[in-house]
Amino acid sequence: MFTPEKIKLIVSEKMPGSRVQVKDLTGTQDHFELTIVSSVFQGKSLVERHRMVYSLFGSAVGAEIHALSVKAFTPEEQK
């Protein structure tokens, strides 16, 4: 089972230095909104950014994590 805290921990460990926010959208711990601000997204398209994030969770996306809304920004985009 995934929780917002577990998702945040996974992202923080695999993308050090990132600012991460996670919301459980339904209270059922399978629909999440994930906002990440990281310099690793510099020069990446929206699709590339989403693929990078989904790859952090492997086969869990679409299974234990039924829905994952991703907002991925560079630090400059958040200023």
If you had to describe this structure to a student in words, what would you say it looks like?
There is one protein chain. The chain is of the alpha+beta class. The chain is built from two helices and three strands. The protein has helices spanning 4-14, 46-55; strands spanning 19-24, 31-37, 67-73. It has a three-stranded mixed sheet with strand order 1-2-3. Helix 2 (46-55) links the parallel strand 2 (31-37) and strand 3. The model has no long low-confidence stretch (mean pLDDT 95).
Give a quick set of tags describing it.
79 residues; alpha+beta; GMP Synthetase, Chain A, domain 3
CATH topology: GMP Synthetase, Chain A, domain 3
CATH class: Alpha Beta
Reported for the largest beta sheet, the result is:
3 strands, mixed
Strand and helix order: HEEHE
Q: What would you give as the CATH superfamily? A: BolA-like
> What is the radius of gyration?
12 Å
* Span of the ends, CA to CA: 34 Å
Secondary structure class reads alpha+beta
Integer tally of domains = 1
Structure summary, number of beta strands:
3
Question: What is the overall shape?
Answer: globular
Instruction: Provide the low-confidence segments as ranges.
Output: none
Please indicate the percent range of residues in DSSP E strands (runs of 2 or more): 25-35%
Task: Return the average pLDDT rounded to an integer.
Answer: 95
Q: What would CATH call the architecture?
A: 2-Layer Sandwich
Strand order of the largest sheet: 1-2-3
How much helix, percentage-wise, in residues?
Answer: 25-40%
